[in-house]
Amino acid sequence: MKISTSFLFDRATERMSTTQNKLATTQAQLAVGKQILSPSSAPDQAAAIQRLKGEVQRQDSHMRTLDVALRRFGAEENALSASNDLLIRLKELAIQASNDTLGPDDRKAVGVEMKALRDQLLSLGNTQDDSGNYLFSGTRVNTPAFAENGTGQVQYQGDQTQTSIPAGVERTVQFTRAGTDVFSRVVRGDGEAIGFFDSLDQMISATNNNETTGIQQGIADVTQMHNTLTLSQAKNGSDQQVISTQKGVLEESQLRMKSTLSEIEDLDYAEAVTRMNKEMMSLEAAMSSFSKISGLSLFDYIRG
């Protein structure tokens, strides 16, 4: 085989160029901390990285929604608990007022506290979350759920629309709640349905007017209201549990995906530094060899 000086020169140059490219790639990887510098260098890995990143982002969005829901349900829980406490006190006062030993003035005194409790319940019905949205207005979150008209009658201003959010595989939980589902109408023994606050107003009026029958009806109404609110509390607690469980599932799933993503994408610094040192030594050796070769003529090479 014929060997020329230019052939040796080209081989040495090619070796140095290859080693320099490898070294430059390793240094670039160390600079960014990633294994893959461009999708074209590893198409399959790049596609896997993008898929995993997309899934992590999707789950991040889902978890933010669940966090909002948990804060909302926490505010609901507080409002429902406080409302139930007020109803219990109203029932105690109604039982006290139904005692025929109380005179008209005594009952009016009881009626004053009843009215204050009723106003507190109205305020709780218009509870807002940390974003300023009304909890019990359905989807009309910018409108107070309940308001008094010119005659003092309380009217519901929200809607009955219910929205849900995903909370697991084929599982959703209710996100918006209509005030009429929580502060619901009562249905009396004769089949008459009457609004939550209308019933309270009638009981207060009966107490102020010394009407024992009306007070006793109010006791039955408040008992029904209390039962409805208790069911709402149970539903709220169940929804919170479902969301908390789903959030835990997502957190575990995200941890696994981020671990897999790190294995595919992130650089092993120890291995890369070791590789870089080897490549630097290889380049130095190649440059040294090239220096010697470039000083030889073909005759010297053959003679040597």
The low-pLDDT segments are none
Largest sheet: 2 strands, antiparallel
Q: Quote the average pLDDT.
A: 80
How much of the residues is beta strand, in percent?
Answer: 5-15%
**Largest sheet: spatial strand order:** 1-2
What is the number of beta strands? 6
Order of helices and strands: HHHEEEEHEEHHHH
CATH homologous superfamily assignment of one domain: f41 fragment of flagellin, N-terminal domain
Helix amount? 55-70%
User: Could you give the distance between the termini?
Assistant: 17 Å
Under the CATH scheme, the architecture of one domain is: Up-down Bundle
* SS content category: mainly alpha
Radius of gyration: 38 Å
Number of helices: 8
Brief rundown of the structure:
By secondary structure, this protein is mainly alpha-helical. 69% of the residues lie in helices and 5% in strands.
